[in-house]
Amino acid sequence: MSSDRATTAAVEAHGLGKRYVLSHRPQATTLVERLGQLVRAPLGGAGDEELWALRNVDFSIPTGSAVGIIGRNGAGKSTLLKILSRITPPTTGEVRLRGRVGSLLEVGTGFHPELTGRENIFLNGAILGMKRREITQRFDAIVAFAEVERFLDTPVKRYSSGMYVRLAFAVAAHLEPEVLVVDEVLAVGDAEFQRKCLGKMGEVAGEGRTVIFVSHSMAAVSALTQRVLLLDRGECRFDGPTAAGIAQYRALQGGGEATPAQYVATGRSGNHVRHARVRTSDASGVHRHGEALTLEFDLDVPEPTSTLCFSCKLADDSDRNIVHLWCFEPDARFRREAGKYTLRFTVPRARLFQGAYSLRAFLSDRRTNTMFDELHGICPFEVTMDGVHRDDYAWTAGDCTYLESAQWELAREGDAPQRGTVAP
Amino acid sequence: MNASGPGPVAPPTLIIRPDSARSLGLVGELWEFRDLLWTLAGRDLTLRYRQTVLGVAWVALQPLLGALIFTFVFGTIAGLPSDGVPYLVFTFASLAGWGLFSGIVTRASGSLVQNSGLIAKVWFPRVVIPGSVVPAALLDLAVALAVLVVLMLWLGVALSPSMLLAPLWALALVALAFGLGLIGAALMVSYRDVQHILPVAMQLLLYASPVAYAAGVVPERYRDIYWINPVAPLLEGLRASLLGTAMPPTWSVTSSVITTLVMLALGATVFRRLERRFADVI
Predict the structure, then answer these.
(1) B169-188 tens-digit pLDDT
(2) Coil, strand or helix at A171
(3) Domain A262-384 adopts which CATH fold?
(4) I need a surface site. Which of A43, A57, A131, B237 has the fewest CB within 10 A?
(5) CATH of domain A5-17+54-252
(6) Which residues of chain A are within 8 Å of residue B195 when distances are taken between CB atoms?
(7) Which residues in chain A have their CB less than 8 angstroms from residue B2's CB?
(8) Hey, which bits of A66-222 come out as E strands?
């Protein structure tokens, strides 16, 4: 009888696959349309395209370990999480999970703005799978963790966003499942609270429970996990120690189809970002600090909407947003006419500090709150301080994230002030 | 078992497969997740009456206003008979049952779409969502029955021991409504038409059932067709048990119970067939 914990897998997946059928016909959302389609093309067929979001994925996660799932956009991370949390069934293969599974794909699932903090704790706890008795037992701990004692009987619609997130995470953090599945929910909240969450999750893993954690933030992944699964286009590319996995991930970002500072969409329909490029000062995705940086996006807009919005962010390698750019112009042409557009942003002097950066892009409709396309970690590029000189001190990682120029003035009573510039 | 170590009891293994057969039936799932069911029911109830001036009074006011309208139109203007009971009491008793039925069908049908955020982000047995509308509907019924008793005492209608049979009729109404609600909910995930068809269908059903009038006023030659509507005998039976008015024919009650069981089974089957796709489609 092998009850040795180290050899018991908490999660085992064999031949896991998930197929989605992308319809290139207009989606039938009413019975009449659907019946019409059935009459015209009884076997579906013609306009459909199959997409394997996951294919033949095998892995095994030992009990008590914390494992990260990493990969680029569309690699299949979210699909895997949805299968593990039983939200959607796989098309092929099977997963064996030992113990109660708690999943946290969103902060505050089911929170209702009209309900008070107290009511939402019970509601959210029940939705996440806690019995009423368990919630009552942990109620005080949840409230203390969230630091919302004074606002317990206030509707959460009056909470600040920070309080809201803290309360929501606090409930989830007090779930006590054997397997905890967490999506990138830590991307919200203030830095201090994020550290607290990471600590809490580390604690959970320390208690012999298993944590599966999906993130774009390599900093969080390396802080929290010893092992990672690297997914790429629906397949598992790597399963092993975190450091090696992250190295592979970076290699994957740099090489292959994703040529540096480039992103190409595959098989999408509807409004979306077809192609994104970061034009760096040097070739092969290297940018010299202070030079002009150009970001270009090819947008497919088959269905213009009057509040179509595009925005993008430059994020550093800890996934912090450093630069935010947008085009929300009321009479931007892409709000009125369909077509293929190229949107170009030029930053005359990009003063990003040395390090690795990537791009996030969002194409959405403001009024209906529809996200047409949301890309993370695309177009990776490097910023170097080569040729940017300063006296006495060399540049060190972590000096800053963005460098500004300024005037300085040094004064002493009786003397004329001494002046100069900080000009990187 | 070897008791040599403090090791935890081996946790249960969950197997996820494309066609995973559920270990529990729908009823088992409702029972297992009853805490969630009550919490969701409590949420809906709280939200329904929060920020309303009259609050919970609406539970009583709604059927009362409906009954007043029916009394004026059908009792006073049309002068229809009401089996010797004051018209207001007569129609109010049926409206209480109708409220139970239509409340469950309508709210259950819309429940999945309304809770799409939950379905896309967290797993629990989906049947809990339509299931959570039942307690509120039963509470509405309880309040309405209390109001009915007050009306009866006030208008001098004798209370009878047959009232104790009312829960049986109510149970049948709940079962029929829940079966239909499961079908409605599962279909509405893919086809939002349901939300437009439903109010019309319910309106039709209301007038095809003995709520605003006594079944006895339906012309003889339409009677057999009339009683095929499974809701009609249940509402007439509920009213008979409460007020001692005319009972529906026995055969119609039998046929209604059979239809109810078929609808429940059909509802459960349709729901089971479609529930795995909810998160992908909704």
Answers:
(1) 999 999 999 999 999 999 99
(2) helix
(3) Coagulation Factor XIII; Chain A, domain 1 (2.70.50)
(4) A43
(5) 3.40.50.300
(6) none
(7) 1
(8) 66-71, 92-98, 101-104, 179-182, 210-214
